[in-house]
Amino acid sequence: MRFLLSFVVLSLALCSAAEPTVSPYVQHEKRVHTPDGWSLKGRYSPDAIVPLRFALAQRNINAIGEYLMEVSHPKSKNYGKHWSAGQVLERFAPSEETIEVVHAWLLENGFESNSVKVTPNKGWIEVSATTEEAERLLQTEYNVYSHTTGKEHLACDSYHLPSHIAPHLDFVTPTVHFDSRLTRRSESSDGQPARAIGQPGSGSSPKTTGSFTGSIANDLSTCDQFITLDCLRALYAFYYSPVAASKNSFGIVEYTPQAYLQSDLDMFAMNFSRSLYGKAPYMISIDGGYAQTQYQGFGYNGESDLDLQYGMSLVTAAQEVTLYQVGDMVEGASFNNFLDAIDGSYCTFEGGDDPMQDGIYPDPYGGGYKGPEACGTAKPTYVISTSYSYNEADLTPFYTARQCAEYAKLGLMGITVLYSSGDYGVAGNSGLCLNPNGTQTLGGKIFNPSFPSTCPYITSVGATMVPPGSTVYEPETACEEIIYSGGGFSNYFAMPEYQKEAVDHYLQNYYPDYPPDIWNSSGVSRAHPDISANGANYVVAVDGQFLLVYGTSCSTPVSGAMFTMINDARLAVGKSPIGFINPTIYSTRFAGLFNDITVGNNPGCGTTGFNATYGWDPVTGLGTPNFPKLLAAWLELP
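Above: the chain sequence. Below: its structure as tokens.
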């Protein structure tokens, strides 16, 4: 089985082809299948207009991992010396050479100089071409595809670039990319939003078994049935009151139509965290995001209610929690819309949004947000928790590589980025698995990893549980109730150096007994998750009743709360935030500071998945946090 390993993608060298050159064309991107719900309608009219946009490559991107290790590895003399946003912007801006080479190529192909526009941010070059011109330029054929909802989409199966141009471009749109969201134009007949609830990916929201009967004990005796704040504090010895709250920050990201209800936050507070009664998160609206109340139910309120009730309570009322509410009700949003808002250099210098994947603002559809797109308008918090995901195969390698590089930039600025690893074991969202032809189906047999969990510059969080009949004073197991901890090996990204020793130990001692054609058995790909925390039987107030909730959506904000309090302790003594934590937690200095999980599996794709075992494993990562040990170790670092 052949795999594209990123920094095959991220490490494309910027070759020096400044002068006009006649060079052979090479395939740049290829789509191996038409996504579910779409069907070929026919060729695009040859004289129709195609708005071509060329995403320019960045300088120094091949060294971004080295830069990040310099400020993130505990043995580095520059540990904790994070970069400013200005330093990041200056280091990675596209070169003038890149702009000139792409511009010259377009002029050589017959486009008028005044029609070739470099965007003010220098991230894109744009030109409007007829279909015939675009097909000749990219050596491709454009077709119209129809969705079952009636929406139409312009795409091609693959496209090509001259070999001297390819290193200067990340990708071109519109080409092989398909919508990962559905706009209001394809709204369902009942008037509810047609896109998947819990944007940006479908199937990544928490799960529930519904309301429950009986009472929750005031002690820790029922933590195997009902997880509460007290259970989590006992599991991880997480007893801490912030002392530097004004210097610190914790952010939770939600995507409209997901929204919290204040009445639910108050109901939870009255029962478990009285000091938070009446308190709301500090909300930053991104691209028209707001706490909508038009649509209610677990599918609309479950994620946000869960994240905020536990995230806010665990950092206590003394620490303000920032809610990044992203996207309006009509257009929706993607991870890139959020990244645009917290780091202006992303939308300013990285090629910005892909209109085939991301929400585009001002919203072109009726009833949507009409303000300007958020670009560098929201200050990033020191810890950012996100409980949404795509399947890696949903997106192209170039698209994921561009976004992954942005997470590295956030790490350079001292920001800890956490993503949930998924709830379907070795399968993708909604239990989809890969087929040999690249399609995703419920009957597929090939393991289907999650993104951004597979990006080596974020911290991926899996899920554990207190097994039935056990107590919080006994070891947890991998979560095997309702959900299974997502984990495995990337098909896009190479293994980062910081996790090589840990993953090699697993592969050498507990090598999975599966044929090599159903998982990435190369031994050189990014492995996930990195850590875990409890993800089963959470008591959450949703729409006026308590429900039991499950998922890595639970474990991620809980982990974020603990890292936020470690930041508090460091900031209180004049030290920097912990930033990108992976090089530190995988280091020998932090060996044994997580509670090792050795029991459980993460089934999927017709298999029992991988197994939890001693040391790192692709079910629970390094294990669950031991807060006192981690706090002490991080306080010892400069």
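Residues 1-20, 180-202, 346-374 have pLDDT under 50 and may be disordered.
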